[in-house]
Structure formats: structure tokens, C-alpha cells
Specification:
About 5% of the residues are buried. The protein has helices at about 5-15, 20-30, 35-50, 60-75. Helix 2 (about 20-30) packs across helix 3. With about 80 residues, it is mostly helical. The N and C termini lie far apart (about 45 Å). It has one domain. The protein is built from 4 helices and no strands.
């Protein structure tokens, strides 16, 4: 149960990471608190915009990550 609502709780709610009881409480608070509603609306709008971006790292970035991973693996392999 939520004792004091935080922005992190609203973020979890927006990403469906709350249990049913938490979700009901957060939704009720969003429905009754104008500032909380504005925060939630901005958050969900931002989330929608981010979700619409279909960006992928370049081949160069992927290669750098893989090279780093190989070096770390070599360093810690026995």
C-alpha cells in the first residue's frame, strides 16, 4: 500500500508496474488532484513520444559494445 505518493509511483503506474491496489489508489489520486493529473499527462505524452522513436544504435556503437564485452569477459575468465 502507498503511504505517500511520489512521482516514482506515478511513473510505475504509467508503465503498468503497480499491483491492482496501488493502481486503483494512484488512479483515484490522479482523478482528484489537478497537479498530479498534469504530471501524469506530461509523463504519458512523453512516454508516447519516446515509444514512437524507432532508433537503433549504429553498427560502430554495437561493435564498440561487443569489443568492450569481450575484453571484460577475457579479463574475468579463468
Amino acid at each position: 500500500m502507498i503511504k505517500m505518493l511520489t512521482h516514482e509511483d506515478v511513473i510505475r503506474y504509467a508503465y503498468n508496474e503497480c499491483n491492482a491496489e496501488e493502481a486503483d489508489i494512484i488512479q483515484a489520486l490522479i482523478d482528484t488532484d489537478k497537479k498530479l493529473r498534469q504530471f501524469y499527462d506530461r509523463l504519458t505524452n512523453t512516454k508516447k513520444n519516446l515509444d514512437s522513436l524507432h532508433r537503433q544504435p549504429s553498427a560502430e556503437v554495437i561493435e564498440k559494445i561487443l569489443n568492450y564485452s569481450r575484453k571484460v569477459d577475457d579479463l574475468y575468465s579463468v
